[in-house]
Amino acid sequence: SNCTAIDKLRYAMDEKDDSLKLKKYTLQRFKKLLPENFKLKREFVESGMLRVIQELEGKPGGGTSAEDQAISELIQDVKKCFPAALVQSQSSRYGEELLNRFFGHA
Question: What b/e string do you get for 63-93 counting C-beta neighbours within 10 Å, with b at 16 or more?
């Protein structure tokens, strides 16, 4: 089920889990499942996973290995399943960006 898939992704993206292969496999599955599945997209966002994968960007092992590059590309592909404004709103920097837009840079 989709819920199980989200739970598996959350487990795979857990920072304590160093398995890049598991992260890569899980992102590949979501890249395949998300485009045609509106319900899964909604669950993906509501569960916080869109934010989690964005926080993972550039993190796995410093971004230099082939595995890190592949994961980074998969994250971009998954993000493309959602409107840009939604992706931006789920970014950990969104609040800071809004403050800067309204009040200028500190």
Answer: eeeeebebbbebbebbbebbeeeebebbbee
Structure tokens at 38: 């509106």
- pLDDT tens digit sequence for 41-76: 999 999 889 988 888 876 645 556 788 888 889 999
Interior/surface letters 19-48, b for 16+ CB within 10 angstroms, e for the rest: ebebbbebbebbbebbeebeebbeebbeee
Please state the pTM of the whole predicted model: 0.76
| Exposed/middle/buried for residue 53 (C-beta within 10 Å: 0-12, 13-18, 19+) | buried
